[in-house]
Amino acid sequence: MKRDIFTADHELFREQFRRFAEKEIAPKVAQWNERGMSDRETWRRCGAAGFLGANQPVEYGGAGGDFLYDAIIMEELADLRAHALMLSLHSDIILPYLTAYGSEVQKRRYVPGAIAGDILLAIAMTEPGTGSDLANVQTRARRDGDHYVISGAKTFISNGQIGDLFIVVCRTDPDADPPHSGISLILVEAGTPGFTKGRKLDKLGLRGQDTSELAFDDCRVPLGNLLGREGQGFKMLMAKLQQERLCIAVASIASCRRALDDTVAYVKQRRAFGQPIAAFQNTQFTLAELATEVEIGQAFVDKLLAAHVAGDEIVTEVSMAKWWTTELQKRLTSQCLQLHGGYGFMLEYPIAMDYADAAVQAIYAGTNEIMKVIIAKRMGLGG
Ligand SMILES: Cc1cc2nc3c(=O)[nH]c(=O)nc-3n(C[C@H](O)[C@H](O)[C@H](O)COP(=O)(O)OP(=O)(O)OC[C@H]3O[C@@H](n4cnc5c(N)ncnc54)[C@H](O)[C@@H]3O)c2cc1C
Description:
Layout: H1 8-24, H2 29-35, H3 40-48, H4 67-79, H5 87-101, H6 104-116, E1 121-124, E2 140-144, E3 147-158, E4 165-171, E5 183-189, E6 195-200, E7 211-222, E8 226-227, H7 233-269, E9 271-272, E10 275-276, H8 281-309, H9 315-339, H10 350-358, H11 368-378
Parallel strand pairs: 1-4
Antiparallel strand pairs: 2-3, 3-7, 4-5, 5-8, 6-7, 9-10
Helix pairs in contact: 1-4, 4-5, 4-7, 5-6, 5-7, 7-8, 7-9, 7-10, 8-9, 9-10, 9-11
The structure holds flavin-adenine dinucleotide.
């Protein structure tokens, strides 16, 4: 179906990004997946070409566009299966915290470098003992004179190794009631004494993306590293999760399309019982149903993209899109793998990695169960 949310400028931008990505990104995907990490030079090239912070303010080096420019980048990266290069994590999930809540000093110090690709960003919420129950984080930041002293552990942190600046979710008031009112966001630069990057974790999917443990052992940072106000961390996180979850839905539908298109091509050339497997009614019905669902998902995501750009509060709908599109992606990649037969299980066929990569979509940025908790609560269900 023709999509009507993009202007001619957006389409031009898509063409520019596609050309850039074919040259600078596509040839490196296999190598990133092999070594479990992207490379700094590519981030810098993305920055130099204007592809980081496309929707960030011009005064800090951004392009001042709308979120649709970044959505285009997400779609194109998903199409290339370039999951190693999480530009959306940097530009659309973490940078907005700095531009929305950072002091002028913090913005001047970090935002231009982040947009240039010199300062790579990460956000550290999850801990070994708590993920979904974010209000229960135990990493402690206590005041000592004009410093915070941070102690605790984080895990599953994307960009954990390559990152230069970390937004660390800390408990500044252990006695706060309710507990979430004691949470603050604190900026910690890589290399700060007491901050150690731990293990790079070995994962089922997203093989090229660096996901790590982090440790804070009496890590001292100036009070000026507080982002926003003390005790407001949880509120800031909740306010920014709408965009984070929309990013997942956008990428999910784009990944579905890639897997579906490749499977359609495969079933046309693979033969069994003297005919292409595309001729079997089971193949046709499976792919017809999946193609239908991808169109339904795309229509919903496009509607949400337009609403998000218009500034609407669409937390419920974005939560719906996050769980629905990612469940579709899991089911679609499983069914497409099945249509590849034994070849689908071989890593040399992209569908095998698509299947593995899909699993995490239902887990991070709030699990799909948490999405349903949010929706149900907003429907007035439960206590
Ligand atoms: C590849 C990857 C990258 C990640 N990147 C980051 C990152 O950059 N920064 C970061 O901070 N975190 C990151 N995470 C962490 C991710 O956000 C958490 O894994 C996720 O929020 C779930 O938390 P958990 O793993 O502790 O699971 P748990 O909270 O222990 O959940 C386990 C199961 O219980 C279910 N459950 C929990 N609570 C409820 C409930 N109330 N009702 C019903 N079911 C419930 C969950 O849905 C899940 O099925 C990443 C994770 C992965 C795998």
